[in-house]
Design goal:
heterotrimer, B: 393 residues, mainly alpha, two-stranded antiparallel sheet, two-stranded antiparallel ribbon, 15 helices, 4 strands, C: 420 residues, alpha/beta, Rossmann fold, nine-stranded mixed β-sheet, 13 helices
Chain lengths: 676, 393, 420
């Protein structure tokens, strides 16, 4: 320690800027005192250190805190001196070295072996505390980014000490947007930390139309409550609700409600926990647990008997209870407590929840506003669910749309369809490896994926499928073979690990309506892509010569041939077209999740289901099928949120049943085309 | 009387006799050479592999009946196979765990109550997957005979209900294939859930340890199972042969070749199809019940849709519409598969690159499957037919 | 068919004859879905064996690795383990990754009295006589990470997200109980399971964000496995959630998993392990250098590799101490052995077949490495968790009591073999 002080004195003596030296000497002392807590910080111990640094004020303290927070501080291992690392390099021996300077005075301290210094790494809990301490400085800053940062910190955690600086900042703020945000933050803060009941109540009512998470986060804690028990209710406290054990549930607005039929909500208080409360409060005798009963029995075994009972016969609950009852009366042990006793005891007392906030006015206001907000939140949640369903539907639609052509129009069962999707995704990945710009690479990947899978499709049609048009089951098998082989080839080339397909930054982020309703941009893009495909497909199939010829060949190849159409060529091109579209879908699906060799097989069954459910041979049918399957799956997940697998299982079962009633799908073809 | 009929049947159909003879000879040879009883040239793990292969041959016969003879390309028969395994696995786990619990309880002063036993068993079996209670589907697992009957009843019922729904609404051809695949997927997804009550992804394990037989070496147990599998294969082969040679077999083949014609002849096609579908599901389940105690573990990955596709691949390569074709296909492809993916097969040096069998075997299998479909729809069995003059169809 | 069988039979018999070397079986998947994780462990083992041979082998004999490929197929693990033990006659095995593969191998090694070193963090609730667990038990990873959330980050509401299989299920069950004991109410614990390779995360992320509606700080404890993490972190970033808003601590995301990822979305989120490549120690530098020299500069080291490093060194010590490779003798001499770990401390083998190791918490950085922000003292691994009532009474002690599942209340050994 003496050496440390000495070194500081040395530093002081050589300082070039005397003013800074004087100002910082005090500060260095503060740091010196707390050096251990700064080097190895913990949220539990950092508060007093921060308070001390904060109370010092001045720019130096603020700069130090910023550096500390941004992990820019180091210390010299032998002297514990806090420093900054300006640059790193290697010395002539090839060892790593660092050029350092003092953290407070900026004095240059030459170079050191990098082994000799250690970085100070505050964890994110400590960083949050430092950020909180910096808020007053940041809010008062000239720089708008600083003020924004300060406000962001407040939105995570606001303390009563922040109220004053925030008020001043609002008065001084010129930027309208920021000012509104600050005012909003002030309202939340005053609800949490305000003193004046009128002010709090006003603030609460002003949140009536506010769906943001912060608003709810400010209101909900007002309604926190604890459960109490008594002979009768205590009227001097702010009672939230009366609880009937095993019956009532807790509502979000703090009131008590009845359990809905079929709902999985648990009652707020079970009979047993209610009884336990009675025991804890001294109103009832403690329960004799089976464990205690058995221990007493065991400790009284004499010659294989407990009293009059043979031990070997104590192999039922009833026998043990009876033996214990006898034992209890004999040895004066506490008696068993029957279910009836429990019920009576619980029925003889009142259980009620008491708001932690003593003011009825505030809790009533909060409860009222919250129930309004929660009602709106529910509506938006349903809208969000619908959007999710729509998004999933568009993904299924994309995955299935290629099939709508090859299977729907041409009636070719291509089990390698999923692998075409995978090929498209890998094409995107490879292009991204070659072209670093994400935007350019994605725009290039789409046509490239189309080309690759188009030619793969044409090849498959020429080599395999052409020979099997009359044997659909065989097509199914052969394409399975292709699918197995393609998957393995992809594994051999790209490995089994998922490969990233990164979306350009303009597709990052989300379209946010409010804190409940939001959808990520990438999902919107997929939705738009799905719409484009639908339009393109409808156009190609109904408005172009190619579409006309395709339909002609599918309906009657011989007749089509006699009209001068080359059926072989049309089949080849149609199959290639369908495969190419699968390739583009692959790029989109890869963007939204990830690229693996199993990407295709994850979607193949669903895709076929989509086409079959929608009705083979109809593009609108595929759309309807995707919409139904997507929204259904999300709907099932809504009811059973903790289990996505079950949702998929139930969905497939539903589809199997659905086909019972509409074997030809939602849009069934009628007439001749409907025949197999 | 019956005996003579049977002898006559065998004389009229020498292929059955040849098959059974070869099977018996092979079985005896393996037993003699095995580690457990005989000379010890064949290791226990290889005996297990052979025993498992026999079970795969059985399920291949079932697949051949339903696809090769009846024309229903089911992509769900391996699901029935695995379900059979699950059913027997439940008994094996429960019984073994109960014995352990009871043994441990001998040192406790009070005799266990039934609730305590089932709680302890529940914690032992389901503690591993974060549960404790025994789900209701295990209600019969305590009783060997009831649970063994479930091997037949549960997959049979599933096949019956599914088949009834599907055939009733005249779902056929590729649609039925896709639907059976969806069924398999649904079942696999369901079983993958931890809450399914069958230990989710972990499945049931330690099945090779028969309850109460901890002292008997696996070297012996593997031989018992091998013999049992061989016996089952023989019986199933014989019964299947009788079935396809009967009048019923002719109708089934008729349905395959021209369903509408058979319907117009007054046969209730749907019932016949349903019968074959359910029967073969039950055969598959029985094979599974023999297979998984040898494998030692069953989990949902076993009934992934791809497994059922491999089953179709075996039968196609072996030659469908011939029972021996199915057996040859299953044995040949599955043994070759496990040999080539086991890492012992020598890699082939092509000069510019080294072809590793572990990596390229599936590619090779996939393409050879395409080739068989395109150029040799009768598979290996078809080649055998070329040599035998009598049976060429 | 017959030819193959005869050929294989001959091959088997050839394989079972010959040699006096010490054989080390390596039972890691080299193909299939787990290959990506397990292949590196095989490479690590080969490297360690090579180094040992360069030092003159063991007991004057050469170590010979026997590598097999169980192909991520769980039943095949049992089959290959049997082959290793009976046909190849290995003296020790290093292997397995997933819990189900270990459960598949367990009956075989317990029957044949083999020896397995298992290097991966796992759900605990097991202590086999024939397995040494060199990865973390829940109290060496999950519990300290949860403490970090509670104490350092002040998290009051927990989302336990996991893939639907045994490790997350058991870990979350333990954590749920632990959190309740710490005074977190049941309504403040949100549990969700998703299938392997899940990709549709929007609703789950929205649910997690909505947890913040009652003004409590939310933290996510993730036992999400493998590829599914990609979509999860992507969706989290798309929802505008940063590590400062909702921190995520992952137990299954390490250097190897990050190496194939774009980590921009993950920066600041946490992971808990017993080892990070960024750990500062001379041994670690050496290990990384020799690993990179052998495997390539772009390769990374991770926690299970350290586990194999410790396990292998301990086994070598134990064999030297026992003077034989006999399984029982080696096992007996394992207890109490210490070996340096790569993070600067010393690992000790406990009588319950687990190690004492420090717990590290790291923040993910943009370069795919971890910034270690917390390191505990050595924590002894606990086979049976203290936080579940049915396990709290159980203990494992193979040294003195000779039982892996010993009920301390009734003083009985429940079973000598493991639960499978």
């Amino acid at each position: 320690m003496i050496r440390l002080l000495f070194s500081f004195l040395l530093v002081l003596s050589v300082l070039t800027a005397p003013q800074r030296a004087i100002a910082s000497s005090e500060f260095i002392e503060i740091l010196n005192k707390n050096v251990a807590l700064i080097q190895k910080s913990s949220s539990k111990t950092v508060a007093p250190v921060l308070a001390e640094i904060q109370s010092y004020g001045t720019r130096i303290a603020a700069d130090f805190l910023k550096d500390w927070k941004n992990k820019e501080l180091f210390f010299i291992k032998e002297s514990s001196r806090i420093i900054r690392v300006d640059s790193t390099g290697k010395n002539e021996d090839g060892k790593k070295i660092v050029t350092i300077s003092d953290a407070v005075t900026n004095e240059k301290l030459g170079t050191r072996l990098s082994k000799d210094v250690k970085q100070i790494k505050p964890n994110s809990g400590v960083r949050a505390k430092i950020a909180s301490a910096l808020v007053p400085v940041l809010l008062a800053s000239e720089n708008i980014q600083d003020r924004q940062e300060g406000l962001d910190t407040l939105s995570r955690d606001i303390k009563s000490s922040h109220l004053e600086p925030l008020k001043n900042a609002i008065a001084a703020e010129r930027n309208e947007d920021l000012k509104t945000r600050m005012e909003q933050a002030y309202i939340y803060a005053s609800i949490t930390h305000g003193e004046n009941e009128d002010e709090i109540e006003n603030a609460i009512f002003s949140l009536r139309d506010n769906l943001s998470l912060e608003a709810r986060a400010a209101l909900n804690p007002l309604l926190s409550s604890r459960v109490e028990v008594g002979k009768q209710t205590d009227n001097s406290v702010n009672i939230a609700r009366i609880i009937i054990p095993d019956v009532t549930v807790k509502n979000a607005d703090g009131s008590a409600g009845r359990r809905h039929f079929l709902s999985s909500e648990k009652p707020e208080l079970t009979l047993l926990s209610a009884y336990q409360m009675l025991v804890d409060a001294g109103y009832a005798k403690p329960l004799i647990t089976p464990h205690m009963r058995d221990e007493s029995l065991t400790s009284h075994i004499i010659d294989g008997r407990v009293g009059e009972f043979e031990v070997v016969e104590l192999n039922t609950k009833e026998a043990r209870d009876m033996a214990y009852t006898f034992l209890a009366s004999e040895k004066n042990l506490p008696a068993l407590i029957s279910a009836q006793t429990i019920e009576l005891a619980v029925a003889g007392h009142v259980f009620y929840a008491v708001y932690d906030n003593p003011s009825k006015r505030i809790t009533n206001a909060a409860s009222e506003v919250l129930s309004v907000i929660n009602g709106k939140v529910l509506i938006f949640k349903l809208l969000d669910l619908a959007l999710d369903g729509l998004s999933l539907a568009s993904i299924y639609f994309l995955a299935a749309i290629g099939l709508a052509i090859t299977f729907g129009v041409m009636r070719v069962i291509n089990m390698a369809h999923g692998e075409f999707i995978m090929m498209g995704a890998y094409t995107g990945y490879v292009i991204q490896l070659l072209i670093p710009s994400y935007t350019v690479s994605i725009l290039l990947a789409i046509p490239a994926a189309f080309c690759v899978t188009f030619f793969a499709g044409v090849l498959l049609e020429r080599v395999v499928i052409r020979h099997l048009y009359k044997r659909p089951l065989e097509t199914l098998l052969a394409t399975f073979g292709i699918s197995i082989a393609l998957q393995q080839i992809a594994k051999n080339i790209f490995g089994t690990q998922a490969r990233p397909l990164t979306s350009p930054s303009w597709l990052d982020g989300a379209f946010v309506v409010n804190d409940v309703l939001a959808i990520s941009n990438i999902r919107i893009a997929i939705f738009v892509l799905g719409l484009l495909f639908l339009g393109l497909l409808l156009y190609v199939m109904t408005r172009t010569r190619f579409g006309l010829e395709t339909r002609a060949v599918t309906q009657n190849p011989a007749m089509a041939a006699s009209m001068g159409i080359n059926p072989e060529r049309i089949n080849m091109l149609t199959f290639g077209f369908g495969s190419g579209i699968a390739g583009i879908a692959g790029v989109a699906i890869g963007l939204f999740s990830k690229v693996t060799s199993e990407l295709g097989s994850d979607y193949i069954v669903q895709s076929f289901m989509t086409v079959v459910v929608g009705g083979v041979g109809n593009i609108w049918g595929t759309l309807a099928g995707a919409a139904m399957i997507g929204s259904l799956q999300k709907g099932i997940e809504w009811f059973n949120p903790s289990n996505t697998l079950a949702a998929q299982t139930y969905m497939i079962i539903f589809i199997i049943l659905f086909i019972q009633f509409k074997p030809r799908g939602i849009f069934a073809l009628k007439g001749r085309a409907a025949e197999d | 009387m019956e005996n003579t009929l049977f002898t006559k049947f065998l004389i009229r159909n020498p292929s059955v006799l040849i098959f059974l003879g070869l099977l018996a000879m092979f079985t005896i040879l393996v037993v003699v050479l095995a580690e457990g009883f005989g000379i010890g040239i064949i290791s226990t793990s290889f005996v297990k592999t052979l025993g498992k292969t026999m079970c795969l041959c059985i399920v291949a016969i079932a697949m051949d009946l339903v696809w090769g003879y009846c024309g229903i390309l089911s992509l769900g028969h391996f699901a029935f196979f695995a379900l059979g395994g699950y059913m027997i696995g439940m008994w094996l786990m429960f019984a073994r765990t109960k014995l352990i619990v009871l043994e441990a309880a001998q040192n406790i002063a009070l005799p266990l109550t039934n609730t305590e036993i089932s709680e302890a068993v529940g914690i032992q079996i389901f503690g591993v997957v974060g549960g404790a209670e025994i789900p209701f589907i295990w209600a019969l697992a305590d009783n060997f005979w009831l649970q063994v009957s479930m091997v037949v009843i549960i997959p049979g019922m599933l096949a019956l209900i599914f088949g009834w729904l599907a055939f009733r609404s005249r779902v056929n051809g590729v649609y039925l294939s896709i639907l059976t695949q969806a069924m398999t997927l649904a079942l696999a997804l369901y079983l993958f859930q931890n809450d399914s009550g069958l230990r989710g992804n972990n499945g049931l394990s330690g099945l090779q340890n028969l309850p109460g037989m901890d002292d008997i070496s696996q070297a012996y147990i593997s031989i018992w199972f091998f013999i049992a599998s061989a016996f089952a294969l023989g019986i199933i082969y014989l019964l299947s042969y009788l079935f396809v040679s009967s009048k019923l077999g002719n109708i089934i083949r008729g349905i395959r070749d021209h369903e509408a014609r058979i319907r117009f002849l007054g046969y209730d096609v749907e019932s016949y199809k349903l019968f074959v579908f359910t029967l073969t599901a039950v055969i598959a389940a029985a094979a599974g019940a023999l297979y998984y105690p040898q494998a030692g573990i069953i989990n949902p990955a076993e009934l992934a849709p791809i497994a059922s596709i491999y089953l179709a691949v075996w039968v196609a390569i072996g030659g469908r519409g011939r029972l021996y074709g199915a057996v040859i296909g299953a044995a040949f492809v599955s043994l070759l598969s496990s040999y080539l993916t086991g890492g012992q097969a020598p890699d082939i040096n092509l000069g510019f690159t080294v072809l590793k069998w572990t990596e390229w075997w599936l590619v090779f299998l996939g393409f050879s499957f395409v080739a068989v479909t395109l150029y040799a729809p009768k598979g290996i069995g078809g080649m055998i037919d070329l040599f035998s003059s009598k049976e060429g169809k | 068919m017959k030819n193959i069988i005869v050929a294989s039979a001959i091959m088997c018999s050839v394989a079972s004859q010959a040699f006096a070397d010490i054989k080390v079986g390596i039972l890691h998947s080299l193909s299939g879905s787990m290959a990506i994780s397990e292949t590196t462990l095989k490479d690590t083992m080969l490297m360690l064996i090579e180094e040992q041979n360069a030092k003159g082998g063991l007991l004057g004999e050469k170590l010979v690795p026997v590598v097999v490929d169980p192909a991520s197929d769980w039943p095949l693990f049992a089959e290959k383990a049997r082959e290793l033990l009976t046909v190849s006659d290995v003296d020790v095995m290093f292997g397995c990754w997933t819990s189900v593969s270990r459960k598949s191998v367990l009956p075989v090694i317990e029957e044949l009295n083999g020896l397995l070193f298992y290097p991966v963090q796992y759900e605990g609730e097991e202590s086999s006589k024939n397995v040494f667990y060199t990865g973390a038990a829940p109290n060496q990873q999950a519990i300290p990470a949860t403490d970090y959330f509670l104490d350092e980050l002040g998290v009051e509401k927990f989302a336990l997200l996991g893939t639907d299989y045994v490790y997350p299920r058991t870990t979350n069950k333990i954590l749920e109980q632990y959190l309740k004991d710490k005074g977190i109410s049941e309504s403040d614990i949100f549990v969700n399971y998703t299938p392997f390779a899940h990709s549709d995360w929007s609703k789950i992320v929205a649910d997690v964000v909505a947890l913040g509606a009652d003004g409590k700080k939310v933290g996510v404890i993730s036992t999400i496995n493998g590829d599914a993490n990609v979509g999860f972190y992507k969706e989290l970033a798309a929802a505008g959630v940063s590590a400062d808003d909702i921190p995520v601590v992952a137990f299954s995301v390490g250097e190897e998993e990050l190496s194939g990822l774009d980590t921009t979305n993950l920066v600041g989120h946490l992971a808990a392990w017993n080892y990070f490549q960024s750990a500062e120690s001379d041994l670690n530098e050496e290990f990384i250098a020799s690993f990179k020299a052998k495997m390539g500069d772009e390769r990374v080291t991770n926690d299970p590799m350290e586990a194999h490093y410790i396990g292998f060194n301990m086994w070598v010590q134990a064999v030297e101490k026992a003077g034989t490779t006999d399984v029982d003798a080696v096992r007996e001499s394992m207890y109490g052995l210490t070996a340096p770990n790569l993070t600067g401390g010393v690992a000790e083998m406990l009588p319950n077949h687990h190690l004492s190791k420090p717990v590290l918490i790291g923040e993910i950085q943009a370069d795919g490495q971890f910034d270690i922000i917390s390191q505990t003292e050595e924590v002894p691994g606990d086979a049976w968790t203290d936080f579940l009532p049915e396990s709290a009474v159980l203990m494992s002690d193979w040294k003195d009591i000779g039982c892996g599942m010993y009920n301390t209340e009734t003083s009985t050994c429940i079973q000598m073999k493991s639960i499978y």
